[in-house]
């Protein structure tokens, strides 16, 4: 069964977002843990979270994905920015225990001229400080497009981060189709080759979730421009082949396309129909 959903707002609570997801044919979703530009997070209603947990169980929802704010940069050259990243990251992981056994996704960060090796070390150091044996949440490194000084657009960089993490059972990868395409991985003409490379370098057992997006920009552009399914350079047929692949079809798949609820419902139906 294909597990697919989209990015939704958590502002009205977990139970509401679960019902909203179900209404458009979804059985998973993604949400920001707080304002995507950072700041204080809204308090979690424990009763609401408990109701969602029961709702998810009854409706056979797949694991859901929390997304860290975009301002979280653990490899910045600014001390205060790194301190903010650690504070937010640690706080979010504590909050995620209200909805246990799910995923927390983050952009590895930008080394801002310090070099990828320095950036990777900073990311590893942060993860080793905040990951805990008792946490139920798996932290996901997102594949990036390679714009500017982003870390994590090559599979080798993600593998190096994972290799340095002590609690490896708490770490995984979220593959963003727009990002990997922009990074130069040809998922249109060589999907098997890309996934074979991922398996060799990182290991497919580390691939835990997918962001399903078309790309406004061409292969290898290193520009992060999401498009609706079929309205970009990847195309609907290639994305249908992607979700049908044996390495992908059982993972939680999240649409981050520029859409309203009706648009998401149509894309969810398109992908579900593709695997029938």
Concise overview:
The chain is α/β, with parallel strands linked by helices and 276 residues long. Helices cover 38% and strands 15% of the residues. The chain has 9 helices and 10 strands.
Describe the structure.
The protein is built from nine helices and ten strands. The strands form two sheets. An eight-stranded parallel β-barrel has the order 1-2-3-4-5-6-7-10. A two-stranded antiparallel sheet has the order 8-9. Helix 1 packs parallel to helix 2. The N and C termini lie close together (9 Å). It is globular and about 45 Å long. 38% of the residues lie in helices and 15% in strands. The model has no long low-confidence stretch (mean pLDDT 97). The chain is α/β, with parallel strands linked by helices and 276 residues long.
How is the secondary structure organized here?
Blueprint: E1 3-7, H1 14-23, E2 29-32, H2 46-58, E3 65-67, H3 79-96, E4 103-106, H4 116-130, E5 138-142, H5 155-164, E6 171-176, H6 177-182, H7 191-201, E7 207-212, E8 214-215, E9 226-227, H8 236-244, E10 252-255, H9 261-274
Parallel strand pairs: 1-2, 1-10, 2-3, 3-4, 4-5, 5-6, 6-7, 7-10
Antiparallel strand pairs: 8-9
Helix pairs in contact: 1-2, 4-5
Give the termini separation.
9 Å
> Helix and strand string, N-terminal first?
EHEHEHEHEHEHHEEEHEH
Strand content: 5-15%
Strand arrangement, largest sheet? 1-2-3-4-5-6-7-10
Rounded Rg: 18 Å
Summed up, the helix count is: 9
List keywords for this structure.
276 residues, alpha/beta, 8-stranded parallel β-barrel, two-stranded antiparallel ribbon, globular
